[in-house]
UniProtKB/TrEMBL annotation:
Lineage: Bacteria, Bacillati, Actinomycetota, Actinomycetes, Kitasatosporales
Domain DUF4145: 53-147
UniProt protein name: DUF4145 domain-containing protein
Record Pfam families: DUF4145
Alphabetized InterPro entries for the sequence: DUF4145 (IPR025285)
Length: 187
């Protein structure tokens, strides 16, 4: 970890020869980068890689980190085969905006509508970072938290699996049992 260490006179933390001094340390870089999301086996590695890249610069340049989080959204949309371009009326290939791609994702995969809404919020944070608005570390971490939840909604099947298992138990009035023995030696 590296960063900035400061000593300020009159801050009131420690006294030396009758003068009060304050000390502060602001982290700027962590090697290895601090993880921004839980390691989930179900999340695509390319998306996780972009979040590691964002983490590497988060404390040095939060706006650039937000831009990398936004790139993770684009990668996620690519993985879901949301088109990047279309052919215009003038027969020219035109690139979709991230905004339009998220809308297409929501239209084409309605079961991920909640995830699309979260991605849209992350996109807005990324836009702020891209267009000169100074973002703080907390702003980027808000975006990462939203993205993490969108990834869970998209890739984490544990909640659906639990609902399916509960339905099977409820249907059978207990734990469904497989037949342990076969009849007359038949497999």
């Amino acid at each position: 970890m590296t960063g900035e260490f400061r000593i300020r006179e009159g801050a009131g933390y420690n006294e030396y020869n009758g003068i009060l001094y304050g000390f502060s340390y602001q982290a700027k870089c962590f090697v290895p980068a601090l993880p921004l999301i839980r390691e989930g086996d179900s999340f695509p590695q390319t998306v996780k890689d972009l979040l590691v890249a964002a983490s590497a610069i988060l404390y040095l340049d939060p706006s650039s980190a937000a831009n990398r989080v936004r790139a993770a959204i684009e990668e996620l949309l690519d993985l879901h085969r949301v088109p990047r371009t279309f052919i215009s009326k003038k027969h020219k290939r035109v690139r979709y905006t991230a905004h339009k791609r998220i809308e297409l994702f929501k239209e084409r995969k309605p079961k991920f509508a909640d995830a699309a809404d979260l991605l849209m919020a992350v996109k807005w944070i990324g836009n702020d970072g891209s267009h000169g608005n100074e973002l703080g570390v907390g702003d980027v971490l808000d975006g990462v938290e939203l993205l993490n939840h969108a990834l869970e909604l998209t890739y984490d099947t544990s909640a659906a699996d639990l609902r399916k298992r509960a339905a099977a138990i409820n249907k059978h009035g207990g734990i469904p049992r497989k037949r342990a023995a076969t009849k007359a030696g038949r497999p």
